[in-house]
């Protein structure tokens, strides 16, 4: 029996513009590597890739990647994903990722998807994700040691504040929609 051979793409999501609702000013490096929205999921990423491949390569491309396209790992907190795709057609997936410029409609945030590693095994892809995470933590600790503001703490506070604001907005929207529904 023939084994199906795959490639694993390690992808980073970069956000060149601040979030539309964000009132906190973060350093550029932190802004670009900011966490993905919680509403962004692996299923939406697969849909975006399939739509991108179909747009670039038509039904042929869509058929070639359909059998083994899968998101093995998607972390909104680190804005990183590992995508499994067919070995012979991984370039199609890479091209589709390159041409994606915005997250899907409900979010509608500008994004740059950067493929940082192509691997033949999931183990090496996972090791790359871990290595990159450790490197970011080392840079953050080194930056703290130079007398700058405690970067990890300031980023955590900013993200927590942003999420609390989003929850408050959603709560007020939910309260308003319930009261409208009762009056009808």
Automatic annotation (TrEMBL):
Known role: Component of ribonuclease P, a protein complex that generates mature tRNA molecules by cleaving their 5'-ends. Also a component of RNase MRP, which cleaves pre-rRNA sequences.
EC number annotated for this UniProt entry: 3.1.26.5
Record localization: Nucleus
Official protein name in the record: Ribonuclease P/MRP protein subunit POP5
Pfam families documented for this protein: RNase_P_Rpp14
Transmembrane regions: none
Gene3D superfamilies: Ribonuclease P, Pop5 subunit
Family that this chain belongs to: Belongs to the eukaryotic/archaeal RNase P protein component 2 family.
Record lineage: Eukaryota, Fungi, Dikarya, Ascomycota, Pezizomycotina
Organism: Clathrospora elynae
PANTHER family given in the database record: RIBONUCLEASE P PROTEIN SUBUNIT P14, RIBONUCLEASE P_MRP PROTEIN SUBUNIT POP5
């Amino acid at each position: 029996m023939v084994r199906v051979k795959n490639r694993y793409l390690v992808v980073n999501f970069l956000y060149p513009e601040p979030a539309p609702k964000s009132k906190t000013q973060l350093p550029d490096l932190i802004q670009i590597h900011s966490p993905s929205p919680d509403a962004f999921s692996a299923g939406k990423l697969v849909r975006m890739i399939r739509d991108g491949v179909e747009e670039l390569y038509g039904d042929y491309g869509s058929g070639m990647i359909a059998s083994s396209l899968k998101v093995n790992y998607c972390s909104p907190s680190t804005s990183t994903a590992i995508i499994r795709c067919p070995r012979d057609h991984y370039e199609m997936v890479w091209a589709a990722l390159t041409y994606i410029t915005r997250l899907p409609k409900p979010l509608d945030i500008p994004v740059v998807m950067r493929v940082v590693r192509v691997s033949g095994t999931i183990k090496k892809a996972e090791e790359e994700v871990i290595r990159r995470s450790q490197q970011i933590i080392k840079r953050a600790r080194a930056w703290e040691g130079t007398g700058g503001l405690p970067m990890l703490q300031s980023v955590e506070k900013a993200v927590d504040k942003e999420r609390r604001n989003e929850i408050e907005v959603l709560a007020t929207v939910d309260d308003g929609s319930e009261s409208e529904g009762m009056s009808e």
